[in-house]
Amino acid sequence: MDDIEKRELSPESPQFLAKWGTIIRKLSAVTNNESRVVLMFNSVSKNLWLKVIEPFRVYGFYPVAIYWVLGEAPSGVTASRLRGMFLIVFKKGKVNGKIHVVYEEPLDVASSIVSLAPVMEARAFASLRDAVGKVYPRSV
């Protein structure tokens, strides 16, 4: 794991956007309209959400569902006070209707089991919702 973390690109790195775009482009090349891609991520920064989500739109992926789950990505880049992460399910090709969002119920259940920072989790959700709304208007 340490070796992998040493090779991680910080979102502030000049190469981050190009590398991330390459990953999403390659995913697009090997998927079809029946495929789903799941992004596991969390951040309180709307700008970071925008950097992460925009390439999905560029390469023809559209979000169909967003789930909040308990757990933190094993990474020095994303480690924070956030105890949850969002699973965003993308489908290739445009979709009709709103994105299915599951947030409050799992957050309530998790908060009865572990100590959470509800304000931080809410900020992350608001940033994600705002970023998705900007990249995919009329979807949230």
What does this 3D model show about the protein?
The chain is of the alpha+beta class and 140 residues long. The protein is built from five helices and four strands; from the N terminus they run ααβαβββαα. It has a four-stranded mixed beta sheet. Helix 2 runs parallel beside helix 3. It is globular and about 40 Å long. The relative contact order is 0.19.
The helical percent reads: 40-55%
Q: Main β-sheet: number of strands, strand sense, barrel status?
A: 4 strands, mixed
In order across it, which strands form the biggest sheet? 1-3-2-4
- Structural class label: alpha+beta
What is the approximate shape?
globular
Average pLDDT metric: 86
Question: Which helices and strands, and how do they pair?
Answer:
Elements: H1 2-7, H2 16-29, E1 36-41, H3 46-58, E2 61-70, E3 84-92, E4 100-102, H4 104-111, H5 118-135
Parallel strand pairs: 2-4
Antiparallel strand pairs: 1-3, 2-3
Helix pairs in contact: 2-3, 3-5
